[in-house]
Write a structure and sequence with these properties.
The complex is a heterodimer of chains A (about 210) and B (about 250). Chain A is built from seven helices and twelve strands. With about 210 residues, chain A is of the alpha/beta class. In chain B, helix 1 packs parallel to helix 2 and helix 6 runs parallel beside helix 7. Chain B is globular, with a radius of gyration of 17 Å. Classes of the chains: A alpha/beta (about 210), B alpha/beta (about 250).
Chain lengths: ~210, ~250
């Protein structure tokens, strides 16, 4: 079973629909036991870091996700969902993220060539290391005000440029994240989703389509 | 490099896309789901549904239209019109909107911006303002489709909205709306310089040059048009290719 975590942040339709278009049916769930053991789990996110962590902690989903990661089960965080994989954010001082990957999110500050915050709109991806994903130059839709800093070496696979290099795709072991919204990134978003699933899951896309 | 956005706006009334000139003489143009899909395929960067329904029943119909549209498109969707409360934000976001725009609701209760930004993140709170130059030469914020003068200075209201937590501002020129004579570049650039959140120019696009001017001279991050696209007066692909070849960063599909 493939789950889309529903923790009350609204708008899950478009994520669900994007996966439908690439042949994967996602089931909404807020059940920690299911979330811990499902074949594949998506952590979406629209909202604020502190509020989202409160909800994940209170519902028991946070500990389910930590166990899931210990057992190397695949997990993909999207936008805020990616930020929650890390330790902390300027958006919610003193609140701990899931901490699956070391790293902090800082508030973006306006720069002469990137004067507007949030970083909102379409931007292209730049490859940082040889990681087997062919996203270089792809257009992705970003909406965020916080950017990853000071993470573990090798975690950042792709960046985008907005005044500075901003981490856009991250991965550590079985946990990966997109800072942008693949479900809002047109055809290229769907192509990137497919490639990431093939990258994260043994047996690739076919492995989880047949498991439903 | 961050691309400048071309945005297609669909005014929705009673489940149909409609267009009026200067907010008057409303006529039906087509089915919102089909039009949204078409623009998406043509390469538009973002869609806006603006609900001009007045009644509660029509508002419920809108939620159904959003749900159907959101699963059929793969680009961002903003919904506005009649938004007043945090519940309105929640309902529209839950139905599938990525951003919600608030206009007169924020004038009545500016803290609605702050409340929505806290709960859903400021990136999904869009302040939309209808602006008109009054006889004293000042850009002033109007409501009720340009009929009611709030006597609020447009630039001051933009700055206030930013400080309250808005993540984007749409500047709709009532004088220029629906008359194809170009965006109001002056007020667009004044607000763009006054705030550090993205600015969308709206109202008045009639030809490719108008988009180019809004995105360069006007300093806008995106340019929005409605009837120009609905009536096939301008093809979105051609528009984007022309803008890209003139050196503006544009996403080509």
């Amino acid at each position: 079973m493939n789950l889309l975590i529903d923790y009350g942040t609204g708008n899950l339709h478009s994520v669900k629909a994007a996966f439908q278009r690439i042949g994967i049916s996602l089931t909404l769930s807020n059940n920690p036991d299911e979330i811990e053991t499902a074949d594949f789990v998506i952590l979406p996110g629209v909202g604020a870091f502190g509020d989202a962590m409160d909800k994940l902690n209170q519902s028991g989903i946070a500990s389910a996700l930590k166990k899931r990661f210990e057992y190397s089960r695949p997990l993909l965080g999207i936008c805020l969902g990616m930020q929650l994989l890390f330790e902390s954010s300027d958006e919610a001082p003193g609140i701990s993220g899931l901490g699956l990957i070391k790293g902090h999110f800082k508030k973006l500050s306006p720069r002469p060539d990137a004067p507007k915050i949030p970083h909102m709109g379409w931007n292209t991806l730049d490859q940082l290391n040889d990681n087997g994903l062919n996203y270089n130059g792809s257009w992705a839709y970003f909406v965020h005000s916080y950017a990853l800093t000071s993470t573990e070496p090798g975690v950042v696979l792709f960046t985008t440029h907005y005044g500075e290099a901003i981490p856009a795709v991250v991965q550590k072991e079985s946990a990966a994240g997109f800072q942008f919204h693949p479900e809002k990134s047109g055809q290229s978003g769907e192509t990137m989703l497919k490639a990431m699933i093939n990258h994260l899951i043994e047996g690739g896309l076919n492995g989880i389509i047949s498991s439903d | 490099m961050l691309a400048k956005r071309i945005i297609s706006c669909l005014d929705v009334h009673d489940g149909n896309v409609v267009k009026g000139i200067k907010f008057q003489n409303i006529s039906t143009i087509g089915d919102p789901v089909e039009l949204a899909k078409r623009y998406c395929d043509e390469g538009v960067d973002e869609l806006v549904f603006y609900d001009i329904s007045a009644s509660y029943e029509n508002r419920k119909a809108l939620l159904g239209v959003i749900e159907k549209t959101a699963i059929n498109i793969n680009i961002p969707l903003t919904v506005g019109g009649g938004v007043n409360t945090i519940e309105d934000f929640y309902n529209l976001l839950s139905a599938g909107a990525d951003k919600v725009s608030i206009n007169s609701g924020a004038i009545k209760n500016p803290l609605a911006i702050t409340e929505a930004a806290k709960r859903f993140g400021n990136q999904c709170v869009v302040l939309s303002m209808d602006v008109k130059m009054t006889s004293d030469g000042k850009w002033t914020v109007f409501t009720t489709g340009g009929r009611t003068n709030t006597y609020m200075d447009a630039v001051e209201w933009a700055k206030k909205a930013e400080s309250l937590g808005a993540g984007e501002i749409v500047i709709n020129s009532i004088d220029n709306d629906g008359v194809y004579g170009g965006y109001d570049l002056k007020i667009t650039s004044l607000i763009s310089e006054a705030v550090s959140i993205p600015i969308i120019a709206s109202g008045g696009a009639g030809e490719i040059k108008h988009f180019k001017d809004a995105l360069t001279v006007g300093g806008a991050d995106g340019a929005l048009a409605a009837s120009l696209f609905h009536r096939n007066q301008l093809n979105i692909g051609l528009l984007k290719r022309t803008l890209a070849s003139s050196g503006i960063p544009i996403r080509l599909v």
